[in-house]
Every structure is written in structure tokens, then in C-alpha cells.
Amino acid sequence: MTRPPQPEPSAVVAATAMFVEVLVVGIGFLTGLAILAAALAGPDNSRRLAPLAGTPLAAGAALAFAYALGILIDRAADTVLARPRRRLRARFFATSAAYAQARSKLSDSPALVARADYARSRLRICRGWVLNSVLLTLAVDLGLVHYPVEHRAPLLAMATLLGILAAVGFYLSWHTITATGYRKLAVQTAPAATPAVPSQTSTPAPQSP
After folding, report:
1. Would you give the distance in Å from CA 48 to the centre of its chain?
2. Which DSSP string do the residues of the chain spell out, in sequence order?
3. List of residues 6+ apart from 91 with CB closer than 8 A
4. pLDDT of residue 106
5. How far is the C-alpha of 39 from the C-alpha of 61, rounded, in Å?
6. Mean pLDDT taken over the chain
7. pTM here?
């Protein structure tokens, strides 16, 4: 009894997921830019500009800008991580043509495509937040330097340490997801192993006494 074909993932769902991924990355980077701008502007100028940031027009513009930034940061992060990504891919695919052929073969299975898309979704967020973590760490450190705060030295040390841990954590997550994705793709698209045929060796005829 054959199983009914599994439904393909909706294109609307896939597009919505990608929009959310890009927006998550863009909002993080925009937050870092806002903290950096506030640190450079200083406390007095920041207080004057704060009412403008709370208007609906500013919120809409920030959302649109965050989405555009998300696209930019996603491409930038992919470029920065291109060399380790190629090394990981070379573990499982000898050439780019072999990888492209495996991707083409995977498209015949909607269920596997859906799983691969989910993995790529997490991968995009992790690689984007590698850069976001660096920017947020620098912005927070600069804000602590420019604003009058108590216990500045321990706060600077804590913010820097947390930022480094976040950047390393997102990089390791990206590395693991990428390696796992290539490994699964290689296994799922590998040709079926053919059973070995035992070699038939002729046994010598018994000699007559």
C-alpha cells in the first residue's frame, strides 16, 4: 500500500518565515546602531531626540529600515563566513557541481525540503547575530563610557564578556547547523548501496586416489 504524497510547504509560509528571519536580524542590528548613535550624541541630545523616536512615523520607518538592514547584514554575514562554509561543504561534497546535484535531487522530496528550510532559517539567524553581537557589544561599551553610570569598570567587563560569549555561541551554532545540514544532504541524496555479489570461485575437483 503506497503512502499518499505529502503536501508541499506553502510558498506563503516560506516567504513569511524568511521575512521574519530577515526582520529579526535587522532589528538586532538597528538596535545596535541606535545605542551607538545615542552614545555618540550624548545624554543631552538623546533626551531631546527621544520624543521623536516614539512617533508612529518613526516606528514605521524603523521597521522598514530594519528589514532592509536585515537583508544587508544577512549577505554580509554570509560573505564573512564564506571560507569556513566552503571548508565544511568540502567535507561532504568534492565539487560545487556535486553539491548542486544533491540540492536538485533533494527537491524531489517535499518533506526533506521542509526540514532543510527550517535548518536554513536557524542558520540565517545565527550567522546574522554573529555580526549583531559584535555591534551590540561595541555600542553598549561606548554607551557605558559616554554616560554617567556607577560601577562603570565592572559593567564594561560584564558587557564585553557577554558580547564575546554571544558572538562565539552564535558562530558555533551556525557551524554546527551548517555541518549537520551538509552531512544530512549527503546521506539523503547518496545513491542506494547495491548488495555485493559474492565471487564464485571454482573449487578444485577431488583427485582420485
Report:
1. 37
2. -PPPPPPPPPHHHHHHHHHHHHHHHHHHHHHHHHHHHHHHHHHHHHHHHHHHHTSHHHHHHHHHHHHHHHHHHHHHHHHHTHHHHHHHHHTT-SSHHHHHHHHHHHTT-HHHHHHHHHHHHHHHHHHHHHHHHHHHHHHHHHHHHHS--SSHHHHHHHHHHHHHHHHHHHHHHHHHHHHHHHHHHHHHTSPPPPPPPPP-PPPPPPPP-
3. 179, 182, 183
4. 76
5. 21
6. 83
7. 0.78
How much is the average pLDDT of 105-126? Answer: 81
* Residue 204: partners with Cβ closer than 8 Å, 6 or more residues away: none
Residues 6+ apart with CB under 8 A from 92: 182, 183, 185, 186
For position 196, what pLDDT does the model report? 44
